[in-house]
Design brief:
This protein has 140 residues and is an alpha+beta fold. It is built from eight helices and four strands, in the order E-H-H-E-H-H-E-H-H-H-E-H. Bound molecules: adenosine-5'-triphosphate. The site of adenosine-5'-triphosphate (ATP) has 10 residues, from strand 4.
Length: 140
Amino acid sequence: KEKTLAMIKPDGVAGNYSDVIKTAIFYSGFSITQEMLLELNEETVRSFYAEHATKSFFPSLVQYMSSGPVLIMVLEKVNAISDWRNLIGPTDANKAKVTHPNSIRAMCGLDLQRNCVHGSDSPQSAYREITFFFNKSSSG
Ligand code: ATP
């Protein structure tokens, strides 16, 4: 089985979407092996999203991601990484509502930035992101 890092972002937690998202997670055959509710500080967000540091939206992303609690989860199933990315849908929640109406971002997201959930995009980023938040024995 494969593991991926999923996160319910501040807009998702504040909008009370955690339960409906977890229901979709279980319904889609994932198990949640680790779970942690925490508030990210700006430094942690900058480090987590370091690949976007030069983008024009980075300061806004840092502010948004540190604006309230997030729910961080390790999801496990066969093909977890791509299956979770498919379940959450495209980055822009407004586009998701048109092209992927059953996706989590279509249901819970607000716009291009406030898209309610995160998912690792490759085995390398899944490993990096799981070990970023949890101990190394969780990442296998
Ligand atoms: P994530 O990495 O959170 O799963 P993603 O892989 O779909 O999302 P990325 O391109 O890695 O998207 O961007 C990371 C996050 O930065 C997005 O989820 C979104 O919240 C925000 N973001 C991306 N592009 C923009 C943009 N052009 N304007 C504002 N915010 C953006």
